[in-house]
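tool_call: predict_structure(chain=1)
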Amino acid sequence: MSRYVQSSGSDPDRFVRSSDQLESVRKIGFLMVLIAIPILMIVGYFCYSLFRIDVPAKHIAVLTKITGKDISNEDEISPDSSHKGVQPDILTEGRYFYNPYSWSWSVCQMVEIPEGKMGVRVRVETQKKPTHCWTTCRLTG
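tool_result:
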């Protein structure tokens, strides 16, 4: 069968596609949509799972910025979110979305001090600063 048929309009040199070709194009388009929808759903779920931070009740999340400006030696935490290091703000219970390329986080149990009591935190300072990385969960626990 011919790929193109001559149109019956006023221009005899004009050709249009046959109905068989149009049907095959429709089938290919339908198959592409059927393949694309599950792929998009899988990619969407992967991104949702990867970027999500779930902080349960009575827990906090401590954010650490991986990319950004370096902090000075005098600072223990970063002054703002444009600097690398442990951030001064924490995340309370809830669901948050952060880019795992730029951020790291650790979810820790909150220390609750009962009403009428006082919490004292003792920190021993040494002359030599530790060379290993410290986690903020240990400091709060």
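agent: Residues 38 and 44 are 10 Å apart (CA to CA). Proceeding to next step.
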